[in-house]
Design brief:
- Helix 3 crosses helix 4.
- The strands form 2 sheets. The chain has an 8-stranded parallel β-sheet with strand order 9-8-7-10-11-14-12-13. A 7-stranded mixed β-sheet has the order 2-3-4-5-6-1-15.
- With 334 residues, it is an alpha/beta fold.
Length: 334
């Protein structure tokens, strides 16, 4: 059976009291905190397990011509409010950029403004890795991956952290030099056997799990007959696999409110939220090793909130970031 990480630690109330201040954290600030993929996975797992206790309205999604989008993603959990703004523009590197504000629910003060590009990539990779843990068949050994930019790289980092001793064959779909670059980054992982393939058919056939981090697709990327019995399909950005909606035995998603307007939602054979699979692993989710399961984890603000809270607490502990006073305006504001 797959090795599992330690049970998520109890969620503690964040420390946002003391002198009222607003902390600005840049991308280099956050990367320099030394937060590991395992740290992110634990934070995301906590967030998923607490999903039914958060205020989580569906994200506001604006689509524009040219595969451009802007999303606004608010969330409240206990002491924290967060709101992330994220966009995708072709030509950006990485393609998805994000920023996030966080606030104290007791005082109404904004407490942080974070660059959220790293947070977005890492929490998305963590959700994909956790989906493999909770949904893939227990005997999985081969994972096919396409879309090998920031999110794809983060996903492989999280898979390596979540299954450090499990022998796995990782098939990468060739695109520009992305597959070769990614393979070079993971050559030191003795348990990972990394192959590069040239076609989607070669990627899908023989894979127990197929993970796509492609951020834009105007057509279906694979034929149903290419997928093996028992496969778990994880299109991270929900693109390119809609032709599988009515073929698979069930669909797992991270939030009903975010996928209920999908074209085929009412005709899914079975739909279960990922958090419910995690909370009830013996009664929900995969029923046998032959089921084909499609996972629509569209990405939730609760993932950002829990990882953002981790980042803020780590930054406060190490004195990282730019701090400015943030008093309430008071009667003399105008």
């Amino acid at each position: 059976s797959a090795p599992s990480m330690a049970a998520p630690a109890p969620v503690s109330a964040p420390v946002v009291r003391g002198p009222e201040e607003l902390v600005f954290l840049s991308h280099p600030d956050i990367v320099g905190l030394g937060i590991t993929p395992a740290d992110v996975i634990r934070a995301v797992e906590q967030g998923l397990l607490k999903k039914h206790s958060v205020i989580l309205p569906p994200k506001i999604h604006i689509n524009l011509p040219g595969n451009i989008f802007w999303n606004t993603m608010p969330c409240v959990f206990e002491d924290f409010y967060s709101c992330k703004m994220v966009n995708r523009y072709p030509g950006h590197e990485p393609a998805i950029l994000a920023t996030m504000v966080m606030g104290d629910m007791h005082t109404g003060q904004f407490v942080a403004h974070l660059d959220a590009t790293w947070i977005t990539a890492m929490r998305t990779g963590a959700v994909a890795a956790l989906t493999v843990k909770y949904v893939a068949k227990k005997s999985f050994s081969t994972i096919g991956m396409l879309g090998l930019g920031a999110t794809g790289t983060a996903t492989l980092h999280c898979l390596a952290a979540l299954f450090p001793d499990r022998p796995m064959t990782i098939k990468l779909l060739r695109y520009k030099d992305h597959a070769e670059v990614l393979r070079s980054k993971f050559e030191h992982h003795a348990n990972l056997h990394i192959l590069i393939v040239d076609t989607m058919e070669a990627l899908c056939r023989g894979s127990d799990v197929v993970i796509s981090a492609v951020t834009a697709a105007d057509r279906d990327l694979a034929q149903p007959e290419w997928f093996e019995s028992g496969v778990t399909i994880i299109p991270i950005h929900t693109r390119g696999f809609m032709n599988m909606d009515l073929v698979v035995d069930q669909v797992v998603g991270d939030d009903t409110g975010h996928v209920c307007d999908f074209r085929n939602f009412k005709n899914f054979r079975k739909f279960t939220e990922l958090c419910d699979v995690m909370l009830n692993p013996t009664t929900l989710g995969r029923r046998n090793d032959t089921e084909k399961i499609l996972c629509y984890n569209i990405g939730l603000a609760v993932h950002d909130l829990f990882v953002g809270r981790l980042v803020l607490e780590r930054a406060r502990a190490h004195g990282v970031g730019i701090r400015v006073p943030a008093p309430l305006p008071g009667k003399a504001f105008l």
